[in-house]
Amino acid sequence: MKVYYSLQDFIALPKAAVTTGTFDGVHLGHKKIIKQLNEVAQKIEGQSVLLTFFPHPRTVLQPDLDLKLINSQNEKIELLKQTGLDHLIIHPFTKEFSRTSSLDFVRNYLVNTIGAKKLVIGYDHHFGRNREGSFEHLKEFGPLYGFEVEEISAQDVEDTTVSSTKIRKALSSGDITTANEYLQYEFPLRGKVVEGEKIGRNIGFPTANLVVEDNYKIVPAKGVYAVKVSLPAEGISGLKGMCNIGHRPTFGGKFKTIEVHIFDFDQNLYGQQLSLQFVKQLRTEIKFDGKEALQKQLKADEHAARAALA
User: Fold this and answer.
1) Nearest CA to 249 among 281, 292, 286?
2) Listed residue (92, 70, 90, 67) closest to 20, CA to CA
């Protein structure tokens, strides 16, 4: 898969099968669209192209919303590489670009810049200024500009429509099981290890304190989770542990922290990047009566986490 960071970097193809959208999460519904896109590209003896945007349009148009995303840009690229796409265009999204009319978007970008002969779009997809463009518009534009369009119906999982919004809500409530079911992979989170207050070490559960440097990345709800851990820079993977997200109420914590206790592991990690994969929420955040009560619960958490990760 070739990656381009602007439409201007792309050279039009003779036969392109194109889809466009934000694709946050690269979830079940997205994968269905891309699968059909690749099949269409093969039928027309062309190549598949996905046009997406960064930053997410809603973060530009609704900055007060404070939207958090399922994937970092690097995560999304890696996930899309696994789908068999030929080309990925990540175009900068600005307020100026948002004023592009639906007609100009189709004519100038999809047809003239990319070379679209086939468009594959998801259920209820809208595009262009004020989201004015729709499937009906595309059907009108098709004969004028020499392309055909296919719309994919809603992708259902047990009668529930899969969407990035629903996955974000699941993560925000700590429902990792549902989020992972919709994603079809374990939710990832990456952060840099920084020095903490060493509270965990003093109670027999040393932790790596993480700072997530991607401001757009969603962090699951407060609670304790079973996680898989890897150190990408060192090529170490397959580690297991438990992650606590919260304010450490037992010790009167004022700031939200992300702490990871890695099982059967003792190494200085300061300054390194840790990658987590969330498998299951073990419990919500609780304030305990004291250190001994917390230690007892942490032992139970470890037992539960090991079972979940077995």
Assistant:
1) 286
2) 90
